[in-house]
Structure formats: C-alpha cells, structure tokens
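Troubleshooting log. The previous run stalled partway through. Resubmitting the same two chains, unchanged.
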Amino acid sequence: MGVLLPPRRAGVDIVSALQSIFKRATIWLPYLWLIVFFLAPFLLVAKLSVSEPAIAQPPYLPAMNWLDGPIGWWCDIKTFSISNYTFLTQDALYWKSYLSSVQIAFISTLLTLLIGFPLAYGMARAPRNLRPLLLMLVILPFWTSFLIRVYAWIGILKKEGLLNQFLIWAGVISEPLTIMNTNWAVYIGIVYSYLPFMVLPLYANLEKQDGTLLEAAADLGCSKVSAFWQITWPLSRPGVIAGCMLVFIPAVGEFVIPSLLGGSSTLMIGRTLFDEFFQNRDWPVSSAVAIILLLILIIPIMLFQKSEARAREQGA
Amino acid sequence: MRPHDWRRLVSNPKQPAALNRSFHPWLEKDKQPFIEFQNVTKRYGAVTAVDDLSLKIYEREFFALLGPSGCGKTTLMRMLAGFEQVTQGDVFLAGENLADVPPYRRPVNMMFQSYALFPHMSVEKNIAFGLKQDGMAKSEINDRVADMLALVKMEDFGKRKPDQLSGGQKQRVALARSLAKQPKLLLLDEPLGALDRKLREETQFELVDLQEKLGITFMIVTHDQEEAMTVADRIAVMDHGRIIQVDPPMEMYERPNSRYVADFLGDINLIASKTVGHAKGKVLLQSDSGQDLQVNTSEEFAVGRNVWFASRPEKLNISRKKPAKALNALEGEVWDIAYLGGLTVYKVKLDSGEFVKAAVLNSAVSGADMITWEERVWVSCSPQGARVLIS
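Second attempt completed without errors. Output:
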C-alpha cells in the first residue's frame, strides 16, 4: 500500500553525489582560475604599490606581514603609504606617458580599423571556397615569433632599409625618409602586429550578415553605397567594437614595439614601467604605475562588455 | 476609388471585392500586358534556370508562379526585381524594357521569403526605409507609416524590433514595408512559407482582400498548389525553366494540358490508352488492358494514338454493384482506405493491375455499411468527368 518507491541503492547515491560535485566544479573552475591567475597577482602588485622602497633584496619594505594575524593586518593597513601614487602626480613623465600611450593606441586602433575593415569585408565577400585560405593568411603571421616580426620591421623602416630603397628606386622620393625611431614606426608596428585581432572579429561578423538584407535595401530604392552605410555598417558594430577593444587594450600597454621601433621621444607607459622596474629598481612605484594602467584599461573593457550585453539583448 | 488612396482605404476597410468577378484581362484582345517576358533565357554557367520563356501578365492581376523547387520560378521573379540579369530576351514592365534599370530604380517591391527585416531598426523604421530613400518629407513619412501599420493591423508594434515579433507579425511588417512605396507591382517570394497552416490559410484570404483593395498587380511564387489556387487569378505551372500551362485555377484544375500539370495540381488517376475513334462530341478509347472508355471532348485525336485517360479521384464513383449505365466502369478490389474526415479516399487495385483513387464525400455519418478492405467494387466515371491527356 502507499506509494511504491524504488529500492535505494548505495551505488546510485555515490554516482549522483559525484555528478553534483562535478557540476559544481565546472562552475567553480573558471573562478578558481581567475582567483589564482588574476586576483592573487593583482593583490600582490597592489600590496607592493603601497610599500616603501628600500635598498634591500627584494628592494622594498613589505607593507604587510601575513603572520601578523588579523589585528596586526589592521595595523599594517594603517601604515600603507600612498606616497608612490602621489609621486606619480608630481613627475610629469608619468601622466605624459599615460596620455601618449592612450593617444598612440587610439590612433593605431583607428588605422587598424581603417585597414582591417576593407580587408574583412573583402574576405567575407570572397568566393566561399576561397575564404578558408584567406582566413589562414590572416592567422599565418602568428606562426612566427612576435618579437622577430617586429625586429624585421627595423630592416624595412631604417634609413637604408627596404622601404626607402624601394621608394628611391621607384623615384617617389630622392632623400630617404626618417621613419625608424619615430611615432610613425610605432604606428606601423602596432597596426601590423594587431591587424589580425581587428580582422578576425570583423570577418566573423560580416560573414554571417544576411545578404538578402542588402537586396531588400536595393529593392526599397537604396543604392549600394548607401546600403553599406545604412545596413552593413550599423550591423557590423559589435564586430567593430570587439576588434577595436582587442587592439586598443594591449596597444596601450605595449612595450616591445615602442622599444624596438620608437625613438627616444616616443613616450609609452609600458616603457616607463619597464625602466622604473629594471633601471631604477623601484618596485613600489612601478607597481603603482601598473595599478593605474589597469584602471585606465578597465574603463574601455567595461564599456565593451556593456555594448556586448546590449548586442546580446537585441539578439544581433 | 483611385488605386493608391490609402487613407480612405484604411478608414473604410470593407471595400467591395467586386473587381474580381468579371476580371479576365488575358481574354481581351489587344489588351496591353503590364509585364511581358519575351523569349527570356537565364543560364548559370551550364545550368539553364529559365528556358526561352514568354509570358504576359496584366495590370491588377494576382498571378502565381507554381512549381517544384528548382523549376526557375524564383529566378523569374528575381529578374523582375532586378536581382538577376537576363541572359537572353527582354523583360518589359509597363512598356519599359527593364534591361538596364537597376533594382533600386524599379517601381517594383518585393516581399522576401525570409522577410529580410532590418534587425537594427524598429518596425516603424523598417517601413519608413524605402520612403526615406526617396527623400520624402518627415511628416509625410510618419503619416504613411501609420497608414501601413493600420493596414496590416500592427499599430501597437511600431516601436518593436523585428526580433521581438512572432513569425506572423514579421510577415505583416514585411508586407507593410513592401507596400509602403506604393509599388506598381508587388512580388511575393513564398510569403507564407514560414507560417503554420491555420495562420497561412487566414493570411491567404487577407492577401487576396488586400490586393483587391489596393489594385496593385501581385505576383506570388509558391510551391504550395492550394495557396496558388486560393490567391491567384491565374497560375503558371513551371517545370525545368519552362512554363507548362497558364490558366485560372479552375481551368487549370479541370482542364490540365498534361500529366505533369494534372499531377502537380491535385491528384489524378491515369490509365494508359489508345484512341480508337470518335462519336459526336466524344473520343472513344481503349485502355492498354482492353477496357473500352469514352471521354466527352470537342478535341480531335488521330486514331491509334497513345494517350492517357485522366480523371480526378472525386469524379470517380465507387459501388459494390456494377452501375446501370455503365460507361467507363472498371472492376477491382479495395486495396487501401484513407479516412480524412471530410473525405474518404479508396485506393482500388483494378483487375488490370493498375491502381486508381476514388474520393467519396462523407456526407452521411458513416455506418457499418461502408465499403471496406478487400471488397470487390466497381469504379466508374462519367464521360464528362474525364480528360484525354496526350503528354
């Protein structure tokens, strides 16, 4: 009588318990990853940035001792020094570096978009069987070292380099151009290095756009050029934003390209940070520089995520 | 009423649908066609999509292109819209050769199968899109958009994005958008294909109403024969890039010119036969199994010719006893029965080995007396209910 229940079996319970553990693990794994590889280093750097520099090994006085216990930690926190941050406001080098980094990154991003969009557009409109090959060509540079590719540009851009030789041979110029060790070389280097990051999201977006929308636009009296600006361009917005973020964010903190291609007047925060860390061995100040850089970058990342969320809401 | 008097139309939606009754422009002599295809051929490489096709369509007609997928019906329509170039021949619209007119300059609008609504624009902006391209004044655009929304009964959805609409609503918006510019010709590419059956049937009648109210020429592409018969004044049945027959739905159904058309439009029983002679108003046939058959027709056929005796299932009678005036009566055994509610279809295996279908209207509540499986039956067809098909 009553409701008949299946007999309980121990094995079934173990299996279901394991299943729920795995389910939870798959949710927690990404968080664990973020805690270990993002939050912990961030906290270390943050702690470093409020320490006092010292001539020691390592070259700072720890601002906090984990062995102090909770009360000791509170005392430690009260002794945190913000002098490293105030120092950044006193020397014009730092805000000039930030500003110049953002400016260089912004111009480079714009140039990358200007080159990347037609490239992605052409790829998306290419015959279907050709597209995988074109996609391969875009990814191909990743197969060699980034550093070597930037080095190679020195050979192209320097005074007696390939570019100048070619332009003189072609009769375009009579005197070699000074490109190497200027901001132009940095722009060229960034545009070249980050172009795939612009092209790939744009291509992914343009390729899946519905071609009948353009036919519908033409049908309603819209010329081809006008249809591009009214249909294709607004619909490619998520791709443009993704591409720009993927270029802008790493470009702001770029170190290798300005070091190798830029001149002494090329001010970028990545270089300043490097010098602070390795030449001056001022770890606390360079940590403060890194924290501020992170804050500058978090704003565009948040904007990016907001636009992504909006795009998802629209289902575009 | 002027053909494009939209405001009146919306305020007075019940216009008499009287236009239709005696509407036969294709029978009038010297009537100027509105659309004319002259020996049009379209090839994609080695594939011929449209093959030396000529066709005339008249103003205010609701014309349906019907055929299986790949028969060239969509290509034909896309030529009118300007999305496909003609390989050979000419297409005229209102007397003008369309050869060098780009799509955005044609007084033709199209409703796409996928609707092709612009996903980043609201319903209002979608409808206003074509008007904006023409540089119409803003206030005028707003008025027209409101009219169009009223026309398709979507007044409350103007601010929505296409993704926030159901399939039927999208269909209405697409229709409103394609009508907003008051085109002379509206092309409908499988417009109801994505709707469920009930909604599709309702919308078919709405389309007919709308077309009669607006007085615009409509051209619809479909593979659904019921849809074509419901909406169209005339149907063209296509196969392999050629038009097989162009006629009004009833004409097409009752007098198909070939086995292909007869089979595509509804169901048909075919019995291979030979002509043996003529009586007044009749053709006498003998089926390949030796059965004497006759068909009322004024057509003349050479004696001894291979033809097909063709009859629709609903024109066959089925009975246990041989009918008294037994013309075209064939004996067989009930092989299969499909009870469809309104109809019962009997599949009968004739003694000659051929199968025929007979559809019987279930006018009385069925009882124990129904003809059932494996019964011996007689299937008969009056000479008026049959046709002779030669191809």
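Takeaways: Residues 10-78 of chain A form one domain. Chain A has two domains: 10-78, 85-314.
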